[in-house]
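Continuing the series of single-chain predictions for the mutant panel. This is the parent chain; the variants come on the following pages.
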Amino acid sequence: MTRRRERFETPDGDFLDLDWFTVAEAPGRSGLGAPAPLVLILHGLEGSTLSTYMHVLARELAARGIECAGLNFRSCGGEMNRKPRMYHAGEWGDAVFVLERLAARFPGRALCVAGFSLGGNALLRWLGEAGGQASALVRAAAVVSVPYDLAAGSRFIASGVRRVYLRRLLSTLKAKIVAKRELLPDLSMRIDVARALAAKDFFEFDDAVVAPLHGFRGVDDYYARASSGPWLHGIRVPTLLVHAEDDPFLPASSIPRAAIAANAQLTAAISRHGGHVGFVHGTPWAPRFFAEERVAEFFAAALRSPT
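Parent structure:
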């Protein structure tokens, strides 16, 4: 598999890097029509187009004749972004900006969008707020391992063995603050850098960094406004939600089962096991990945259906 990078300059003077995936062993056409459909993939917290799940999904989509590209959120593509902001769980503006440009460039191609973890939360947040207007851009959507309740997820990951994930993610987030401070000397006027670098959990880091950088009144305001769970009722695009009850980023009690069941546009694939963007099955020498397979199948079916 290879990646071809394309850079989009944003209206606020920053940039976004989009990586187009080329799968050498892709079989080509698969009966979904011409021109080939296109899927935009959004990664999770501190992920990028290098994340394994992005490549696995790209292969599954290619096997069904679907082209895809992955969006690197600001600060995630290997080069620090220019502006005094990054990305967060409720930030869908950049993804929609890219979707609009893809739709304008390829007016005859069906467009879908998939999101993992934080990227999935941002996607659901947009779909819920946009309602029927989202169907003007995308035919279908899919998300995997979404933290539907950000406050509950932050509390959950800060306890027990789950703190292993917390420490790893905080270390890379803090490294970005150091790098951004070197790029933007006035960063300390916008956030409490010392508090950010001393943060022991997501509550502290998000209150010190994410909230002030992105216009929230504090961490509670950020979590309340950015969580996708309360917006599921507004989604009017066929959307697949893949989740595992043993996800270390969200307690099973916080999976919004009632809201999912109440919206006919939502299709749930909730399993007892699978972890966070894991869902590995098969054998060690021939592993299979349930979530990526299920997402690709969902898109293929949606694209075969009449609009």
